[in-house]
Each structure stands twice: as C-alpha cells, then as structure tokens.
C-alpha cells in the first residue's frame, strides 16, 4: 500500500483541473495581451477565472490578482503593503510560514521596519492580549497572522484579529494558503485587508496563486514590466495556472462540507486509534482537537524510541507511508521545525505531520496506525 | 472557433506536443513537492527539476547550479535588476541600459530610479543597433551594471553581446542580458555574462516559467532575493517549485538544442520570402538592419495607412502584432521604433511578423497576398 499523507505540502491534482488546463497548452496558446483572436480568447479565459474566484470568495474581480503562488502573493502583500501605506512597524508570530517570517525579517534587516513577534501560548495559539498591547504601542502596523498553521493546524480567529487591527489603524494580511479551498472565505464580512492562495494546496497546479487586496487598501506592484493584471503584476500570465486554480477552487466549493466531513472522520478515527494503540501518544499544537484545528492536519508526537529516533519518517516511507516532519519548504534543512521549537516541544520525542485530502481513505488510516503500532511495539 | 494564421511567435508560442507529453505525468502521477525530502513523491519531483536544470544549462552553455527557476522572464528581470540594486544599497549607483529594451527592463529600472539609482538609456541608430563606443563612454566610476537585451522582441535586431560582455568584464561591471527572444532561437553562451533572463513560452515551453542564469565563482556580487520564504533555489527564489512547468521548460530546451539549426534555416528562408514579397509594395520599409537579426522576425512599416485600422484588418486572417504583446493594449506607438527615429504614425503602421514551428510556405504565400490586398484596399 502506498499512502500519501503529506497534503499540506502539496496535493494531487484533480483530473478535472488537468482537463480544464490542457486546451490552453495546445489549441489556445495565445499571449493574453495580444489583440488578435489568439490573444483575446485567452484573455477571456483569464477574466472568466478571475470572476469565478471573486464570486466564490464573495468579492469583486478587481480585488483578485493572479501570482506565481502563495509565496509571491505573501511577499507582494507585505513588501508593497508596507511601502505603499508608509508603515514602519510590523507584527507577526514566530510560527508563521517562512514566506511571511523571512520576508518581514528581511525588511527589518534592511531597516525598513521594526518587527515585533507576538507571544505564542504553549498550545500554539496567539496571545491576543499581547497582540493588543503591541498594537497599542505601535498603531499603524502591518499585522501578518496566518489563518491556519501549516504544521500544527492551529486556527487563528481572523475576525477578532481583523477588528483589533482595524481599531489600531493597521493593515491586516493573512496567509490563508492552508485554508483556501478548505474553508469558506466570505470577504464581504471578513475583516482582512489581504489574503493569499496557492493552487497546489487544494488540488490545483503548482506555480499558481492569487492575492486578494481590499479595494481601499490598494498597493503598488511587486513585479514590474508590462501592464498585466491591471498594472499590478508584470509578466505574461501563466494561463494554464490561472485556469487551473480557478477550476480547483470551483471544485473545492462544490462540496466543501462533504470533503470536510470525510476528512474529519479520517482524522477522528486516526486520533482515536493512535490513542488506543500507542501509549503516551500526544498531539502538537491544537491539531488533536477536532474543533480547534485545521481538519487536514494532524501533528503527532510519539514517545522516544531507540529504533525510531531520527528515523521515523524513513521507517514510515519503508512501509509506504509519505508524511513529513513539518513544512516541506524547510524539510531539507537540518535545523528542525521552527514551529515546534517555538512551542518548546520535547526534542527527545518524534513529531510527524500527517495531512489529509479528500482522496484519502479510512483504510489508509488503519494501515498507517497498524504500521506505527509495529514500529513502536518495542516501547511498551 | 477558427483562428487566423499565427505569425506572432515572438509574443508567445504553443507548447510543443512533446513538451506537453513530458509535463502531463507531473500533473498527476508525480505530483510531489520537490522540497519533500521524506518520501518518493518528493524525490521524483526533485529529480525531474534537476534533469530540467541540466537540459536548460546545456542549451545556454551554463553549469546547472547557475540556473534559478522563476515564474518567467519578467520575474527574472526584476530579480536581476532590483537584486543588484539591493546588493549595492547605501552606495551611489549608476546603470546603463538602452531605449529599446523590453518594458520589463525599462519599468524595473524606473522603479529603482525612484529609489535613487541613476540610469543611462543609450540611444540606437536607425537600424536599432547600439553604439559600442557610446556604451564605453557612458561607463562611470559608480556604474554597477550594464543591461542590454540579446535580441529585440519587436525588430529581431541582435546586439553584439560578445563584445558588450567582454567590455563589461574588462571594466569589472556586471553584464545582465534579457535573452528572452534569443534563447532557443539562436545559439547563446554565457561567456563573460553575469546574469541572463529567459522564458519558456517563447520557445515552445509553457507560460509562467522562466529562469535566471547567475554566474558562479565570480567576485562580482549576485543579486539579493526578490521573493523570500522557504529558501528554495539556493535562497534566490522562494516558493514551491512548479514541477510540471519546469519539466516543460527543460524539455523545450532539449528540443530547441536539437532542432535549432535546421529550424532557423527553414524559418529564415520563409521569412525572407515573406519579407521580399511584402516589400514589393510601394511605401514599405524594413524596420531594422538586414543583417544581425533573428532569422524568424520581420518588422515592416506601411506608409499611407492608419495603424489601428491596418492591424484590425490584418488580424482577421493573420495573427500579427504591431509590437510587443505586453504593451499592445495601450494605443501608444512602439517605443522601440520611436527610438529608431521612426515617426509615431509610421510606427503605429508597422507590423511585426514572427514565424515559427507551424509556419508553412503556403501560409507565407497567403500572407503576402493578403497583406497586399489589405494595403491596396486601405490606400484606395
């Protein structure tokens, strides 16, 4: 059996998304900026995709900008949001994705902003009192806090953070890469200034993404050259990526509740079986709490064992199970997860992130628990 | 719908059928995140990316580790120019470029000018050539970079890149070239070149992917990253790698290397036929030098007709453009032709024909006849 439980790193594309993209590689290959019909046909496809995304998020097409992915979208919002609105202070958390954390750290290093990190509670949640006191001392800040943490699944209350940011005249950006296509975002009622998406996290293509920026918080472009994306993003559009991400989002919204129920039932079963079969199993962050965490992520903390120390992911792979120790972006690095370090996780225990998609099955969960049980049988 | 005959290969090209075939498995079966180190989905993806890097390196005569994958040439250009500007921050900075560069280069230079850089925009002669003596004289003690394109997108004019690169090397200045229109069309090399931008969709690869070549083992500095995050691409470009598109770029590079010699000969003879056929008309003129230009491009001006009407009529049967696709939405005359001393009206009544893989002799015969007929009716 081959089990893919690394869906927070990337997901398999939905066949219907691939089908929607292929014509734009073969027949409809024009440059969307060309005025002849090769170009106009493709331009129409892009604008149709933008309209679809906007409709699903309950906002206007003029607030959606296509990018090369979540990372570029985060960079755009932060670098250009800070520059355009003349902000000199930013607040983020130590457990943000590196696309946010490193971008803000660079700006601080260049002397463009002062950066404050909000305290994280032992369960991985944000210390909201500390956030408020930071805002009180530094009104007119860039606040960048993610919707759901990619490693431990903690969900932030965007509404609460957003209204707090608003009352201190701040710009609120949220990295929503892990929740886009998995949760409904109603941008009419949600008080955020910018959010982002990466298509490959919800069965769309890699290299596709978008940035939403609220109309009254307009920002200047990040990548210059050409009038594409209404002067917001130079460069010939990634047509297949744009068609693909819109299709993927459409499919995600078609049966979001159904997918969510299915994945939640897998996660619930996973948690219960692990508790039953592995003594002293724990869950990092809020990921073990079905109500308070991203339903696609379960970060398991396993007791120390000689056989598995530093080898657990390898042992899982030998058994056909693909999972990860944390974010794929830094999985080449030997420094370990900055998220788990911030939570002061016990380094003698092994942590594994299992992350699910609608394509996973209950048999895959049973199989994985069985293998973990075998790997940890000596501990008992 | 029926498309007109495509003569706009400088705007974009269709994906080669073999390129699409190579990409498809990476949308579905091999969907892994190339940064996932703990399972074969990641390894397969990473292998594919590294193979593509080797294929591209071979095409441009580089070392694979000198290739940074990006979302396209515009991003590569932004990374090169802004990255060098950031590298020299807090110093007086002077740059040299040319009036006929692509908007991606010109707009990016405008953005660093606004932040304090000084930029010299070299003129060109009436054939679109830059003067090497003028270039040498423009160099100042604080000149940090010379940025000149390899081949012009509108006229096909090829700059004396070898000489320019040698001059820059002698004066210890970074030479960056936008080689978007040259790569895959004519032989290029990286000798004495510090950075080179390129894009896949100009040589039968997918849109939304490109690369920046950055020379290794050289004392001149490398650019600072534009997009921060997980530290992908040796820290020069963060963001999950778009594996299928990168595979497509690699495969297009291999095909180009294999087919370039024969195909450029074939296209040159078709282009010459088209050009001499059209130039038989009175009041027509070639907008470039006869020599030193790409084999598949011809830019011709038509006296006594109005530009917009000409293009609209021609576009019924021929997908041609009046210049760069990136600026074709704006009704302004081409800045390239203007720099060559062509009047705005005549500039607007100029048409770029660019030929490619599907162009046949009968397409050319039809185009000559259709252009003649259209001009006659417009002048009547």
TrEMBL record, chain A:
Keyword line: Iron, Iron-sulfur, Metal-binding, Pyridoxal phosphate, Transferase
InterPro entries: Aminotrans_V_dom, Cysteine_dSase
Entry keyword Metal-binding: yes
Name recorded for this polypeptide: Cysteine desulfurase
Domain Aminotransferase class V per the UniProt entry, residue ranges: 3-367
Record carries keyword Iron-sulfur: yes
One Pfam family it belongs to: Aminotran_5
Domain of life: Bacteria
Reported cofactor(s): pyridoxal 5'-phosphate
From TrEMBL, chain B:
EC number: 2.8.1.7
Domain of life: Bacteria
Reported cofactor(s): pyridoxal 5'-phosphate
Enzyme class per UniProt: transferase
Record-annotated Aminotransferase class V domain positions: 5-365
Alphabetically ordered keywords of this record: 2Fe-2S, Coiled coil, Iron, Iron-sulfur, Metal-binding, Pyridoxal phosphate, Transferase
PROSITE patterns (UniProt xref): AA_TRANSFER_CLASS_5 (PS00595)
UniProt xrefs under Pfam families: Aminotran_5
Gene Ontology molecular function: 2 iron, 2 sulfur cluster binding; cysteine desulfurase activity; metal ion binding
Ranges in coiled-coil conformation: 253-280
InterPro entries named in the record: Aminotrans_V_dom (IPR000192), Aminotrans_V_PyrdxlP_BS (IPR020578), Cysteine_dSase (IPR016454)
UniProt similarity note: Belongs to the class-V pyridoxal-phosphate-dependent aminotransferase family.
Protein's UniProt name: cysteine desulfurase
Organism field: Arthrospiribacter ruber
């Amino acid at each position: 059996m081959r089990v893919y439980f690394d869906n927070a790193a990337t997901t398999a594309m939905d066949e219907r998304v691939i089908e929607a993209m292929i014509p734009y590689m073969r027949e409809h290959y024009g440059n969307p900026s060309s005025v002849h019909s090769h170009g106009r046909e493709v331009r129409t496809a892009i604008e149709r995709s933008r309209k679809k995304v906007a409709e699903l998020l309950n906002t206007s097409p003029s607030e959606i900008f296509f990018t090369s992915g979540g990372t570029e979208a985060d960079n755009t919002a932060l670098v250009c949001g800070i520059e355009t609105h003349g902000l000199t202070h930013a607040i983020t958390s130590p457990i943000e994705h590196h696309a946010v954390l490193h971008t803000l750290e660079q700006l601080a290093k260049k002397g463009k902003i002062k950066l404050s990190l909000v305290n994280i509670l032992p369960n991985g949640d944000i210390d909201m009192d500390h956030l408020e006191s930071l805002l009180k001392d530094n009104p007119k800040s860039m606040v960048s806090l993610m919707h759901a943490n990619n490693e431990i699944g903690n969900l932030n209350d965007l509404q609460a953070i957003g209204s707090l940011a608003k009352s201190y005249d701040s710009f609120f950006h949220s990295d929503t890469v892990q929740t886009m296509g998995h949760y409904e975002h109603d941008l009419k009622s949600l008080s955020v200034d910018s959010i982002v998406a990466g298509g490959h996290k919800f069965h769309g293509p890699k290299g596709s993404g978008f940035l939403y920026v609220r109309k009254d918080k307009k920002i200047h472009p990040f990548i210059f050259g050409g009038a594409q994306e209404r002067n917001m993003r130079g460069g010939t559009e990634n047509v297949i990526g744009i068609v693909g991400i819109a299709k993927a989002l459409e499919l995600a919204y078609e049966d979001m509740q159904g997918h969510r129920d299915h994945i939640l039932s897998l996660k619930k079963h996973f948690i219960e079986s692990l508790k039953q079969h592995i003594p002293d199993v724990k869950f990092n962050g809020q990921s073990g709490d079905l109500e308070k965490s991203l339903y696609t992520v379960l970060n398991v903390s396993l007791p120390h064992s000689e056989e598995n120390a530093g080898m657990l992911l390898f042992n899982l792979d030998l058994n056909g199970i693909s999972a990860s120790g944390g974010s794929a972006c830094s999985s080449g690095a030997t420094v370990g997860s900055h998220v788990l370090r911030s939570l002061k996780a016990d380094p003698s225990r092994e942590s594994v992130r299992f992350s699910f998609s609608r394509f996973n099955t209950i048999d895959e969960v049973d199989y994985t628990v069985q293998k973990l049980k075998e790997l940890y049988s000596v501990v008992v | 719908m029926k498309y007109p005959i495509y003569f706009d290969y400088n705007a974009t090209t269709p994906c080669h059928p073999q390129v699409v075939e190579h990409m498809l498995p990476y949308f579905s079966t091999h969907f892994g995140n190339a940064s996932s180190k703990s399972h074969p989905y990641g390894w397969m993806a990473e292998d594919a990316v590294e193979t593509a890097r080797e294929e591209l390196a071979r095409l441009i005569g580089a070392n694979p580790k000198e290739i940074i994958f990006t979302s396209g040439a515009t991003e590569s250009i932004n990374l090169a120019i802004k990255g060098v500007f950031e590298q020299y921050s807090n110093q007086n900075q002077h740059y040299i470029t040319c009036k006929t560069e692509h908007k991606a280069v010109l707009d990016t230079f405008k953005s660093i000018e606004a932040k304090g850089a000084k930029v010299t925009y070299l003129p060109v002669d009436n054939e679109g050539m830059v003067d090497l003596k003028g270039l040498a004289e423009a160099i100042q003690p604080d000149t940090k970079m010379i940025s000149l394109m390899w081949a012009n997108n509108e006229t096909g004019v090829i700059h004396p890149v070898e000489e320019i690169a040698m001059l820059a090397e002698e004066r210890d200045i970074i030479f960056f070239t936008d080689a978007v229109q040259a790569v895959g069309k004519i032989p290029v090399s990286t000798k004495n070149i510090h950075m080179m931008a390129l894009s896949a969709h100009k040589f039968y690869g997918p849109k939304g992917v490109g690369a920046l070549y950055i020379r290794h083992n050289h004392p001149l500095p490398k650019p600072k990253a534009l997009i921060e995050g997980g530290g992908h691409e040796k820290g020069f470009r963060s963001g999950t790698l778009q594996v299928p598109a990168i595979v497509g770029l690699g495969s297009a590079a291999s095909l180009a290397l294999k087919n370039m010699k024969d195909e450029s000969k074939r296209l040159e003879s078709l282009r010459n036929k088209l050009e001499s056929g059209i130039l038989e008309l009175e009041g027509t003129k070639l907008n470039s030098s006869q020599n030193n230009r790409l084999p598949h491009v011809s830019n011709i001006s038509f006296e006594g007709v109005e530009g917009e009407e000409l293009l609209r009529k021609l576009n019924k049967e021929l997908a041609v453009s009046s210049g760069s696709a990136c600026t074709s939405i704006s009704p302004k005359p081409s800045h390239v032709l203007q720099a060559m001393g062509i009047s705005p009206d005549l500039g607007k009544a100029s048409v770029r024909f660019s030929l490619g893989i599907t162009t046949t002799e009968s397409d050319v015969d039809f185009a000559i006849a259709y252009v003649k007929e259209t001009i006659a009716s417009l002048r009547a």
